[in-house]
Amino acid sequence: MSPTHRSSRKSVVRCMASVCAVVAATILGCSETTPTSAPVDRSGTFYGNTTSMEAGSGRAYVTLDAAGAPMELGVALTEAALAKLPTANAEFVFPLPGQASVTAYQHVVINWVPTGHEPAPYLVPHLDVHFYMISAQARNAITSADPAYATKLARQPTASFLPAGYVMGTGMQRMGMHWSDPASPELSGQPFTSTYLYGSYDGKITFVEPMIAKSYLDSKPALAVRPVKLPQQSSTTGYQATAYSTVYDATKTEFRIALVNLVPVVASPSASRVPGGMLSVLRSRSTKS
């Protein structure tokens, strides 16, 4: 064989080897499972802007799980905030962070009542912690300056939008009508620590309200989670509470009052007025198992 033929043969062999290597690498690459990206972890606690109080401050917050679903929504108060509160009634507004937008709640308002109010068990210093399902603008419009205020205040939600047994209480400007549970222990002679109310205006549920005795918070309570009575239907879409909690956190030196065990709730888009000023609304409600 001539030198020229031997050189050509080597070139062909080298070329075939290169092609085989490329084909083998391609086959191996195709046989491997394409890696998938890890899901984004959206968990964390997110805070709204700080609200100054008499001597301390507070912030509304929401805690999300890894999937971004809200687990807890509440207000965190510094120890100093409760150590020195005003001698007169006072209101403190807490904006929620953007991460709370998937819930039914739009802002939180604490009404400090140093001398309490009727009925008798509540004639003690306490905090009315309102979680509003309406905007601050809508809340501020609930006043006697509205010619229809009295009518809207008296207009009751359809019974299925309130927990069974709840009864109408007091109507307040910039709040609405309060609904309470006559089976609450403090109404049967037990010491008042906390209770849970609903609020309405113009025939619609507009807030929920853990009402907390100042003396109970002064005891720096360990975490307590209390289930709440729920209505059959809801007029607002978004994650909503099935319990509320209170706790003093010694590590952070803060008190937290929160709505917990939130579940997704879907409100029906249809609503109609019926005689007597009631709202007849068909709602569908989904819960997380």
What are the salient characteristics of this protein?
289 residues; alpha+beta; 17% helix; disordered C terminus
Topology as H/E string? HEEEEHEEEHHEEEEHEEEEEEE
**Percent of residues in helical segments?**
10-25%
The domain tally reads 1
Percent strand equals 35-45%
Principal-axis shape: globular
Mean pLDDT: 85
Distance from N terminus to C terminus (CA atoms, Å) equals 82 Å
CA-based gyration radius: 30 Å
- Count of runs of 4 or more consecutive helical residues: 5
Main β-sheet: number of strands, strand sense, barrel status? 7 strands, antiparallel
Question: Which structural class do you get from the secondary structure elements?
Answer: alpha+beta
What low-confidence regions span 5 or more consecutive residues with pLDDT below 50?
2-13, 19-32, 270-289
Report the strand count.
18
Provide an overview of this structure.
The chain has helices spanning 3-31, 79-83, 136-140, 149-154, 214-218, and strands at 44-47, 51-52, 57-64, 70-78, 90-95, 107-113, 126-132, 167-172, 176-180, 194-201, 204-213, 224-227, 238-240, 243-249, 254-260, 263-265, 271-274, 278-281. The protein has one domain. The chain starts with a helix and ends in an 8-residue tail after the last strand. Strands 1, 2, 3, 4, 12, 14 and 15 form a seven-stranded antiparallel β-sheet that branches. Strands 5-6-7-11-10-9-8 form a seven-stranded antiparallel β-sheet. A hairpin with a 4-residue loop joins strand 14 (243-249) and strand 15. The protein is an alpha+beta fold and 289 residues long. Helix content is 17%, strand content 36%. It contains five helices and 18 strands. The longest helix has 29 residues, at 3-31.
